[in-house]
Prior knowledge:
By secondary structure, the protein is an alpha/beta fold. The chain contains six helices and 13 strands. Helix 2 (69-77) links the parallel strand 3 and strand 4 (83-88). The chain is globular, with a radius of gyration of 18 Å.
Amino acid sequence: MQLTLCGGTQAPAVAMLGLWDPFTQSHEALIRQMCSHARSEGLSAVAVLLDPAPAVYVSARPWPTFSDHQTRLSLLQSIGLDAVACVTFSREDLESGAEDFFDLVCAHIDLKEFWIKPAQALGSGSRGGPWAVLAQTRKRGITLRRLPPEPDGDAGAAGRSHLVKGEFRRARCCVGRPPTLHRPPGDDVSLPWPSGWYQAVPVEFPDGSAVSSSFGIELPPNPGGTATLRWPSPAVEWLS
Length: 240
């Protein structure tokens, strides 16, 4: 694992871990709640962005990415966080555990509190399970807060389920925003979406207004169940 800190912390921090893909309305509400709590306690507020999802390396099918890394980072940065800690995850890191995760994060952040989903693990087996997480936070003097279930259920999983079927309108209804991508370094983007014709619209920001009219765009198929998006123009920074 490698960590890149986008932003900075001026005080001990409270942090929350997530893939943030898709970045749902419940996620945004949780981040805002954490930021408010951090301000009241004199702490910095940090979101830990894990990318890619560990399931990418173990799933039998291409993992349905809703929005790319830059889109999720930009959405997180737009809602009042002091920093986003981007943790790059590789296949070899599947064997990592809670101790490895906290070693990495605490080398960059003075972590005071850690918020985590009820059943979220920090690695495979017992080394990453709830008891390992609890043991590591106690060892380091970090307050652990297990969050309640999301009020809208697992909207992200529902959105991804619609995404792999090409049901983008239903995916948008579940998540509260459409799939959005940032301009890639090259011309083509390989996407774990069904091939076919879609409506696309250039937007000013991942959660912003359209900057031009929508247009039809074809995603031809690739081997292995993915499709290719040919980026429409270098002048387009964001595409929904």
